[in-house]
Amino acid sequence: MNIHEKYIKRCIELAKNGLGATYPNPMVGSVIVIDDTIIGEGWHKKAGGPHAEVNAINSVKDKSRLSEATIYVSLEPCSHFGKTPPCANLIVENNIKNVVIGVIDSNSQVSGRGITHLKNNGCNVTIGVLEGECKELNKRFFTFHNKKRPFVILKWAETKDGFIDKIRDENSMIEPNWISNSYSQQLVHKLRAHEQAILVGTNTAINDNPTLNVRSWSGENPIRIVLDRELKIPNNYNLLNGFVKTIVLTEILTEENNINNVFYEKIDFNKNVPEQICNILVKHEIQSVIIEGGLQTLQSFIDSNLWDEANVYVGDIIFGKGLKAPKITKALFETKLISNDTLKVYKNY
Fold it and tell me: What's the pLDDT tens digit per position in 207-227?
């Protein structure tokens, strides 16, 4: 590992502190170095707050030393006025002459302009250090801006014999049929805290009456999205309580649209539903979504090839019969043991 890689890796470590908190902005870390010694560092903590470069520069006690320093940043410094001033301008104003960047920002508002500004003002700029790792760090951000859709994570739990639910009838309890263990369930809540939104289908909403919030981890509750073609979900169900922003995708629009933090969007259920969902999420500036069920919803994203990762929790339990799990044909990326559960991870990028 060379000197530039060493400090870009530190930038990535710092940036991860913002996971789940920076939407719609990317996660960014920055360090300032003189003679192989860090004199300042920072990361972007929350949208609307100071960017990583600002926090790093502000952490330097003696600003007169910045002219001797190299600033490292995992993503190209911004060059436009948004909620905060341009970071490229700040670097120039502080007379930092050496800039090392992990990856170019593909957002059309930046997209090389920050680098051009730095070079035009006498900075020595190095680009593409640990580029792959920097892209992976902001896979949600890059997917949103490059593919014009959110980063899609499929998630389900299935039994050892391949079922995701028992057979339901009018006498069944309105509650989940738990398949995974408590440790896996905690990891699911960690995932919810990291991603911007979570989506379920009508049957899951009615059968389980889920809250889809973060209870076993710290972090923000995700935006809730539910498919409800005929508005069958009772108004007293958890998903319609307005506790967090909720988007209902339906073919029926009423006069009661968009009240109590619940927003209704019309889609055509006879056309490509996953594609329409992605378009609506882009409209709401949602960069990542967990698709959490049920079978028809999950399989539709798989069949449309509109997914990026899949987390499949295989519990140490057998149903014998029930609702079959989705079928995924991609090669297994990795397997993790979670006590007596097995987590299978698939990637589609």
Answer: 889 999 998 888 899 999 999
What does residue 93 show for φ and ψ, rounded to 5 degrees? Answer: -60, -30
Predicted model pTM? 0.91
The Cα–Cα gap between 310 and 198 comes to 14
Averaged pLDDT of the chain: 92
3-state secondary structure at position 72:
strand
Rounded to whole angstroms, the Cα distance separating 109 from 8 reads 23
Adjacent-strand bridge partners of 70: 33, 98
Q: Give the active site residue among 53, 158, 195, 265.
A: 53
**Partners of 101 in the β-ladder:** 73, 127
Respond yes or no: is residue 195 known to be catalytic.
no
* Tens-place pLDDT, residues 42-62: 999 998 899 999 999 999 999
Longest dimension (CA), the chain: 74
**Nearest in space to 347 (alpha carbons), one of 329, 325, 324:** 329
252-288 b/e (C-beta count within 10 Å ≥ 16 → b): eeeeeeeeeebbbbebeeeeebbebbbebbeeeebbb
Per-residue pLDDT reduced to its tens digit, 70-93: 999 999 998 866 666 789 999 999
**Rounded Cα distance, 159 and 157, in Å:** 7
Q: Give helix then strand counts, H and E, for the chain.
A: 10, 16
